[in-house]
Amino acid sequence: MVQTNSENLARVVYIAGQGHSGTTLLDLACSSGGISVSLGELQISLGLEAADVTSQICSCGAPTLECTLWGPYFSGIEGLDRNERFKRIMEAASELVGPEGLVVDSSKTIAGLRRVAPLDPFVLHTSKDMRAYISAQLKRADRIGKRRPRAIDEGISWWRQNGRIRDAIQELNLSSLTTTYEEICLATQTAADRINAFVGAQLVDAENVLSSQNHHIISGNGMRTSHGGKLRYDYRWMRESDWLLPYMVLRSARKQNEQRYKT
């Protein structure tokens, strides 16, 4: 856990969840209200050097080393450890948003959560419907030419990882809100209202979810630069059955999923 003087640092909105569960989408959405800057997965970005991003484009549209936020950061991090790098980027982001603004970190992981915990973050724990998650993971393996995993293993992973995140939030005694990929895509106004009430500010603009450029994401999935400004939901899992056996067998996971989706 980083010990830092938080007096001059903006409060963090931390997005926790599994990979491929909508965390980058939520990160982009959280910049739409105009009061925050989204930084993507800081846990990954803090390990990068200038040489790693020379050909990389920030989600703001600029080459990373010419970005108004990341350019100055990468010019002075040689020899700094991750804690010092974290303070440096947080100070720069806090100056960008001002004293009333928020900084969004979608690192997802428990390690990232522990890093920001001293700043008393607002935690958004997001997930994808277990059935859709299993289906998407099997498709992803096919798409990238990897050996297809067992559907039941993906169901167990969904259950365990979301449970571990929930336990870490409780252990660290942090303020949290549970949201879902489905809610963001299919009930955007409801999701925005809930998130805005949670942070006490207009963080998400439901009418403008993916149109903002107030984000500087260099680590995250490809949609950070290819979303095209439109929300899309993949309904294909509803016509498939690969998820059915693990969903029926894993009773605790199914119960957790039903609590989230009221299915």
Structure notes:
The structure is a single chain. The protein is an alpha/beta fold and 263 residues long. 43% of the residues lie in helices and 11% in strands. The chain is built from twelve helices and five strands. It has a five-stranded parallel beta sheet, sandwiched between helices. Helix 6 crosses helix 7. The protein is globular. The N terminus is likely disordered.
Quick overview:
The protein is of the alpha/beta class and 263 residues long. The protein is built from twelve helices and five strands.
Give a topology summary.
Blueprint lengths: L10 E6 L6 H7 L6 E3 L3 H4 L24 H5 L7 H16 L4 E7 L1 H7 L5 E6 L2 H15 L6 H21 L3 E6 H6 L1 H12 L23 H4 L17 H6 L1 H11 L2
Give the strand tally: 5
Overall 3D geometry?
globular
Q: Uncertain runs with pLDDT below 50, 5 residues or more?
A: 1-5
Query: What summary fits the major beta sheet?
Result: 5 strands, parallel
How do the strands of the widest beta sheet line up side by side?
A: 2-3-1-4-5
Ends apart, CA distance between termini = 38 Å
Radius of gyration: 18 Å
Classify the secondary structure makeup into a structural class. Answer: alpha/beta
Element pattern in H and E: EHEHHHEHEHHEHHHHH
User: How large a portion of the residues is in β-strands, by DSSP E?
Assistant: 5-15%
Share of helical residues: 40-55%
Could you tell me the mean pLDDT? 90
Number of separate helices: 12
